[in-house]
Amino acid sequence: MNRGYADLEDSYLFHRIGQKVAAFEAEHPDAHLCRMGIGDVSLPLCDAVIKALHAAVDEQASKASFHGYMPECGADFLREAIARHYVSRGIGLEPDEIFVSSGASDDLGSILDIFERGIEVQIMEPAYPAYVDANVMDGNKVIARESGKENGFLPMPDNALPANLIYICSPANPTGATYGRQQLESWVEYAIANDAIIIFDAAYEAFIEDESIPHSIYEVPGARECAIEICSLSKTAGFTGTRCGYTVVPKQLERDGMGLNAMWVRNRTTRTNGVSYITQRAAAAVFTPEGQAQVKANIDVYKGNAAVLMEALDKLDIWYTGGRNAPYIWLECPDGMGSWEFFDFLLERANIVGTPGVGFGPCGEGYFRFSSFGSPEDTRLAASRLLDLLG
Amino acid sequence: MNRGYADLEDSYLFHRIGQKVAAFEAEHPDAHLCRMGIGDVSLPLCDAVIKALHAAVDEQASKASFHGYMPECGADFLREAIARHYVSRGIGLEPDEIFVSSGASDDLGSILDIFERGIEVQIMEPAYPAYVDANVMDGNKVIARESGKENGFLPMPDNALPANLIYICSPANPTGATYGRQQLESWVEYAIANDAIIIFDAAYEAFIEDESIPHSIYEVPGARECAIEICSLSKTAGFTGTRCGYTVVPKQLERDGMGLNAMWVRNRTTRTNGVSYITQRAAAAVFTPEGQAQVKANIDVYKGNAAVLMEALDKLDIWYTGGRNAPYIWLECPDGMGSWEFFDFLLERANIVGTPGVGFGPCGEGYFRFSSFGSPEDTRLAASRLLDLLG
């Protein structure tokens, strides 16, 4: 058996939150909890996507329009739509550099298949737990790049550290911190100098509003020679339960004399039989003008939630990052409280549920995550309770 | 990089078929080709599935009924429906021994994640090419268990050979050969004696009509201690373009002190975010009484095609296996022709396209695969052309 599994640490974060919330609700059956810990979207699929789904289902009902196996790397119509979307942002990509996936989380782990086991992998912490777990499973050596308030939770390259792979998520989960253009340029330079590959997780790019912040690593010169970009429609278009994303592997990307695009083609054609036709039609609808307008309207609702929470934190003079260009707000627990201490305090005293920062790595201790994916009503209520409790 | 990719052989089979067919069509634009090589279904999704799909899409359109992230190992409603389906066939499985997947081909490769790289893997040949490729990619040592007419294309255990993993597909692709109960008992005994794991690919079980042939490896005593079963709705319910399957990992399955069910839970929760809600509702509809009746009606159409082809081969006194309990017919090329020679002969002389057996491994030389997934009209036409050409 793969011994890497024995090295995994048990992930108790969401289990422990669930237990604490259940115990609280049992004791306080009439309390109205504001759930600001949610990492899932709450708004339904937009109308353009729903129409595309129904139309695709109808196609599958008739022999004349029925679609069987899809191309393993993605349907041409979707790869081309995504390529046009990149071009509209000034990034030239060929459709066959874009691979349709069942979501970013799937490809963030599967991409490791094309690398040797046992490589050195830098992960920015606090981190999405799956980055660490997928690498531990594969027997890779995880080099935690811990961060804190002093660097805005944005670790920078360190020439003293080795790396074969570097995971960068910007805007980041859980911190909401975003790398600026010059910072990403430094990472690309470091990757090229060290023959490393950047796995750029752009799952939250649709939340960026500052024009100076790159949405894609390919906005940085040289990135095509050193970076794979993994994207998702989960947060962009509410596809968390619909499952579609895309992964970019440029043809210029080569290591050890092997072309990574060709390796990924071979991986996909061997290890998958493509993504559902119905789902791919839904995804293509996201990239139409009406789809883009509708998903932006949903994101604006979440951004409104973030603004309400940020306004309360500003009034309370609580330090935070994220919120403006990300669906997450990462705040310093007040009065020197620890992450779990603040969790209990908020739950008991304000009936607010959030996520303890320490659950994303040791350097998250003393920090706390709010998400903007809840309902506007609950978010306003949470903000007013925060002001009452801490003001 | 993963050096296993350098050891892969290029797969030219379907590419070469495509080239030959394109060249023929360019020269004979008026010829009507009978495509008997198709490995994809041609009938649309059944009515129960279409209704379930539309209903699920409607749920995703409204905030009150919207579903976000699904449980990574599968929705309870689907795991329970599949467990009841097993129980109806006399096999007791718990829902949490059943993992919903995006299809058998996905899990046939992904399951390797829980094993060490470099293990010894027995693969029955002629084989579905992805078995070999997924293992070569992982650096495993493939032990080809070659088969032929003398053993009915059903290799049996050999105590002189090592094995950590054993891939068994029954009914098999490409040969359509099916293992009987006693033969599977021998494999289970061998696996237990050698501490090996059987990966049982049951993708074609719905085509079995002989009551004595097991549909599931778990019909064999002891299989829960040595077998993982990988199933698909692709051929059972026409889901090739809809993507859903399921993988059974019994809780009794342990190796090196590690429980494989728990390892697979950890793999799924780390490396996926579950299967689309809409797709899982479609899959659940397959297991309703009306869904079962409707998918059986489609399979009966394909079985009718197989019967037409078998009748022609019987009249021509051509040896074959499969057809009765499988969607594939595997025949010996007449007059000692090689696989590609017969391909060209059939294409030129009868305008029939099939699949050369040698494309599934060297021991397939001299054999040829017909599939029953084409249209009834073309299948009847192909049978009558075969009789004219070879009779």
Q: What descriptors fit this protein?
A:
homodimer; 391 residues; alpha/beta; Aspartate Aminotransferase, domain 1; 7-stranded mixed beta sheet; 4-stranded antiparallel beta sheet; 12 helices
What does this entry look like structurally?
2 copies of one chain form a homodimer. Chain A has 2 domains: 3-45 and 291-390, Aspartate Aminotransferase, domain 1; 47-288, 3-Layer(aba) Sandwich (Aspartate Aminotransferase, domain 2), CATH 3.40.640.10. Chain A is 38% helix and 15% strand. Chain A contains 12 helices and 15 strands. In chain A, strand 5 (165-169), helix 6 and strand 6 form a beta-alpha-beta unit. The longest helix of chain A has 27 residues, at 289-315. The termini of chain A are far apart. The model of chain A has no long low-confidence stretch (mean pLDDT 96).
- Biggest interface found: A-B, 67 and 67 residues
| Count of separate DSSP helical elements of chain A | 12
Question: What is the string of SSEs of chain A from the N terminus onward?
Answer: HEHHEHEHEEHEEHEEEHHHEEHEEEH
Might you state the CATH topology name of the largest domain in chain A? Aspartate Aminotransferase, domain 2
CATH superfamily of the largest domain in chain A, by name, is Type I PLP-dependent aspartate aminotransferase-like (Major domain)
Which segments of chain A are poorly predicted (pLDDT under 50) over 5 or more consecutive residues?
A: none
* Structural Rg of chain A: 21 Å
Strand runs of chain A, count: 15
What helical percentage do the residues of chain A reach? 25-40%
User: Could you tell me how far the N terminus lies from the C terminus of chain A, measured between alpha carbons in angstroms?
Assistant: 55 Å
Identify the CATH architecture of the largest domain in chain A.
3-Layer(aba) Sandwich
User: In this structure, how is the largest beta sheet of chain A organized?
Assistant: 7 strands, mixed
Counting structural domains of chain A, the number is 2
Characterize the overall form of chain A: globular
Overall pLDDT metric of chain A: 96
Strand order of the largest sheet of chain A: 2-8-7-6-5-3-4
Task: Briefly note the structural class of the backbone of chain A.
Answer: alpha/beta
CATH class (first level) name of the largest domain in chain A: Alpha Beta
